[in-house]
Amino acid sequence: FMGDQDFYTINIESGDIVSEKRFGKRFRISSWGSNILHSDNKEITLWDPMGNIVWDYVLDSKYSRIDFIDGDSKSPSDDNKLLKPSLIVGSEGGFLRALNYNAGWFNRNIERWSFNVGGAPKRIWTHNQRAFCLTEHNSLFTFDVNSGKKINDILLDQYNYTRWYPDKSNDAMILANDEFIIGIDPLNGDQLWKIKEHKDKKIRPFDNNLFVTRSVVEDSIIIINNYNRDNGNLIWSEVLDRKKQMVEPFSNMEGFSGIDM
User: Which residues contact 253 (CB under 8 A, 6 or more apart)?
Assistant: First the structure.
């Protein structure tokens, strides 16, 4: 069990505490496989369940973002499968790195690859065999997750996009902020389309459809727009009038007003 300062290993059958470790200060702690990863300023450390250091790595500067890559034996990869799973970490100095869970003999293979993206990574995520990084300078980079080879980099209007509903399909990835929704090609990182929508929206992809809904409370209506997920074209739009729907059932009962219910 983990807090932000304490690390306990507990016997699942008896509830006895097998080991415990209290760190000197609070920082981010995450579970990674059977081990624990902690991030403190620019130091990344992997601990085993007994509180022993597996490896530690010092970045060039304070970390900015972290994402995990789980090993998947069914997915295509390069020949060196021992290097998966991995960790993608960005630093404020503008570097993106992949660190290996299994660092090999004498921890010689902690770093799998690194790339200078020219600005602090603000968003990092992985999708199948791709790693994506959105920097403070609004650049979206696409990398091969195994080799670190840069596949693409494009310029967006802002970096404050959030990824919506991640899945393992090769349908367009959905990024959104308060102003726009954009579709990103999950293989080469190109921007496929861009839609301007209200900030108070809800987004739900379904197969090749992208449903965007929002409620206008003062008018008692719900607006539903259905876009094509591949090209961003509007397929249909519908306005649901909640007041009308509430009135109609009662208007249909006018002929029964004299019946004793």
Answer: none
Residues 6 or more apart in contact with residue 85 via CB below 8 angstroms: 32, 33, 68, 69, 70, 71, 101
Inter-residue contact 20 to 6 (CB < 8 Å):
yes
Place of tokens 């404020």: 92
Q: Which helix (H) or strand (E) holds 249?
A: helix 242-251
Checking phi first, is residue 104 left (phi over 0); if not, alpha (psi -120 to 50) or beta?
left
pLDDT at 257: 36
Q: pTM of the predicted model, to two decimals?
A: 0.81
Q: What would the two tokens of residue 89 be? A: 């970490």
Measuring CA to CA, which residue among 133, 57, 62 is closest to residue 96? 133
Q: Given a cut of 60, is residue 76 above it in pLDDT?
A: no
- Other C-beta atoms lying within 10 Å of the C-beta of residue 72: 14
- pLDDT per position as a tens digit, 185-201: 999 999 999 999 988 89
Q: pLDDT at position 244, please?
A: 66
Which residues share a beta bridge with 31?
A: 36
Give Cα separations from 17 to 48, 49, 86, 253 (angstroms): 15, 12, 29, 67
- How many residues in total does the chain contain? 261
Q: pLDDT by residue (tens digit) across 83-120? A: 467 899 999 999 999 999 888 888 888 999 999 999 99
Instruction: Give the CA count within 13 Å in the CB-facing half-sphere of 45.
Output: 13
Mean pLDDT score across all residues of the chain: 84
